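Task 17 of the worksheet. Students: predict the tertiary structure of the chain below and write it out as structure tokens. Keep your answer in the requested format; marks are given for formatting as well as content.
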Amino acid sequence: MGAVVFLCMKKYELIDHTADIGLRIFGGSLEELFQNAGFALFDVLTGSEKVMPREKRTFELERENLEELLVEWLGTLLYVFDTEQFLCSSFKVIRLDNNRLHAEAAGEYYQDGVHSIATAVKAITYHQLTLSEKNGLWEATVIVDV
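Model answer:
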């Protein structure tokens, strides 16, 4: 009788950083890494369990390289929260190629008494930014300014 092995990959982990919050984000593909990066941002910001995917937003972004595209993706999501109080809880990359991203994020507007802000994220930084693939697994490190 053969053993069944389940690979349970976590989406992200917090890493030590003196003044800000460091995120180490994982993905079985580059698309999954971008989806998990969006999840990590909002999980740190408010916790995703109380945010319902009631409304979708579509994003089309392009940058010079994948690292800049990742920062732009997270920065754009943060901007939508800052300007519209729109919280995201699920993310879908529709297309990611040639440093261009077409993605959707679903969520709802912030509601007092339903949602709370756990960590006030001010910005996504380029400090210690990394994005790499090794043996088919993707990993990124992003520092967010709090």
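Marker's comment: Residues 66-84 form the longest helix (19 residues). The CA atoms of residues 130 and 141 lie 5 Å apart.
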